[in-house]
Design goal:
Elements (H helix, E strand, L loop, with lengths): L6 E3 L4 E3 L2 E3 L5 E6 L2 E3 L2 E3 L4 E6 L3 E5 L7 E5 L5 E4 L4 E3 L4 E11 L2 E3 L9 E12 L4 E3 L19 E6 L10
Parallel strand pairs: 2-5, 3-6, 4-7, 5-10, 6-11, 7-12, 10-12, 11-13, 12-14, 13-15, 14-16
Antiparallel strand pairs: 1-8, 8-9
């Protein structure tokens, strides 16, 4: 039986040409057979996901690193962030999942004290970064300070192969 917390979606194509903004620690998940972003998606300290496939499941992430773990079904689709698209999750997680992942725009997840920015591009067939694209997880220029015993981890950008019907949680 499926987990009561898991949510399954079967959908058509999804496109964003506008602006989507969540509150702090929110989640903006674009889920469809094909996913395309030409607009702006912002989720401070939250999670942004473009999950392309005939079936996509979201399950709570017990580790607390993100809001959801994403599972793409047996027929993944194409997830695209077009050149005019901008995706920002400072101190959060940005994920693009599908058969083919095309990142031609801006994907930015700033790392700050206490929380690293993460960008994960996971595909079964191909990952493409456009010539003018920006995929970045810089360190915040905040004036915050911390004790020298604090362990700081910088941002994490992952480009990986993805097996269909396998959780897209990174290692």
């Amino acid at each position: 039986a499926p987990d009561a917390d898991m949510q399954s979606y079967t959908a058509g194509a999804v496109a964003n040409d506008g602006e989507i903004t969540t509150e702090k620690q929110g989640a903006a998940m674009l889920i469809g057979s094909q996913v395309e972003n030409r607009g702006r998606v912002v989720s401070p300290e939250g999670q942004i996901g473009f999950a392309a496939g005939n079936e996509v499941e979201l399950a709570p992430d017990e580790s607390g690193k993100r809001r959801y773990l994403v599972k793409v079904g047996a027929i993944p689709g194409v997830a695209v962030n077009r050149a005019e698209g901008a995706v920002t999750a400072d101190s959060g997680v940005i994920g693009m999942y599908g058969r083919q992942v095309i990142q031609d725009g801006t994907a930015r997840a700033v790392s700050a004290i206490g929380k690293s920015g993460v960008i994960e591009l996971l595909a079964t067939d191909a990952i493409s970064l456009g010539k003018e694209s920006r995929t970045e997880s810089p360190v915040s220029n905040s004036t915050e300070s911390f004790h020298e015993s604090f362990e700081f981890t910088g941002g994490d950008i992952q480009l990986k192969g993805l097996m269909p019907v396998v959780d897209t949680a990174p290692d």
